[in-house]
Amino acid sequence: MGIFEMMEKFGHEQVVFCYDKTSGLKAIIGIHDTTLGPALGGTRMWKYEKEEDAITDVMRLSRGMSYKNAAMGLNLGGGKAVIWGDAKTDKSEELFRAFGKFVQSLGGRYITAEDVGTTVSDMNYVLMETESVSGRADVSGDPSPVTAFGVYRGIKAAAKFAFGTESLKGKVVAVQGLGKVGYHLCEHLHDEGAKLIVTDINQESIDKAVKEFGATAVAPNEIYGVACDIYAPCALGASINDETIPQLKCKVVAGAANNQLKEPRHAQVLMEKGILYAPDYVINGGGVINVAEEFSPSGYDRDRAYARVNTIYDKLMKVFETAKAQQITTAAAADRVAEERISRIHAINRMYVAE
Length: 355
Hints:
Helix content is 43%, strand content 15%. The chain is of the alpha/beta class and 355 residues long. Strand 4, helix 2 and strand 5 (77-84) form a beta-alpha-beta unit. The longest helix is centred in the first third of the chain and has 21 residues, at 51-71. The model has no long low-confidence stretch (mean pLDDT 94).
C-alpha cells in the first residue's frame, strides 16, 4: 500500500519523513487530525525490522492519539513520531537536536513528548531546538506514573462492570510488559492485594517484580494462556490477535499498551468470547492528560492533573454502558464518543494553524 493510500485509509493530514546524515536520524512524524488543536503525541524510538513497519506504526499510533485526546476532552489533535534506531546504542545529543529542528519546522502543528524508547532527558535535547515539547522535566516530568494511575483506575472500572465489584483484592492480573508504566501499574495492583503474573523481555525487570511484589514470572509467549481474571497488555501493540485470543483465560482485557487490537475486528471476537475489553486509548489516557496540563493558562498543577485522570473510571463506565445498551463492542462505543466530539468541533475549527 502506498503512502497516500495509507493516509486516506487512516485519515491523516500530514506525514513527514526526517533524515539527517550527520546524526544518523531517521524519523517519521505523523499528524493525523488537528481539528481540536495542535497534534500532541510522543516520540517512540525502536529498531524496526523494515521501513514499512515504522510507517505503519506511526500511522496507527498518531490516529490513536486523535481518538485518545478527543476522548479525554482535550483541545488537542493527534500526532506521533517514530525514530528508527536502537534506543540502547543509537542515542546522541545531535540525533535528538536534529529531530527537534524538524519538529520546529512544523510551526507548532506537532507537540512531542517521551514515549517507548525515549526519556525526559532525551526530550531536553529536543527542547534545545523547539518549544513544542511536553512532559518537560522542569514542569510535569515523566508521565509514566500518571498513566499507570489512570490504567489502574480503568482496571477498577472494568472489574466493577465485569465482576460487580471494583475491589482487586485477590484478583489475578497477568501483566505483559514491565516498562515504566507497567511497573508502576504493578505497584498499584500489589498495594490493593492483587496477585500478579508478569512477563517481560528484560529479565532484570522480572526479577525485581518477583522480589518486590511476590509476582509469578512466565515466559513472554506463555502470558496469554495463564489463568487469570484480568489480562493487562502493557508492552507494544497488536498483542490481541488471531493467535493470542484463543489462548486467553480471562474475563477482562485492560492494560496500558497502545493499539492492543491487531485489527478492529478483534474487538468483536473478544466480545463473542465473553471478554470485556477496555479500549486502550481511553484507559491509558492519563499521560496525555498530565502533559496537556502544561498548557493550562494557570500553569501545571499536579493535583488537578490527577483529579482529571481519576475521571478515566467514569469515562470507561460510560463506554461499557453504551456498548451494552447499543449492543456494540466497547471499541466501537469509544470510537463514537471520540468521533462525535471531533465532528462537533469540526464545524467551527476545520484545521489548526499556528499563530
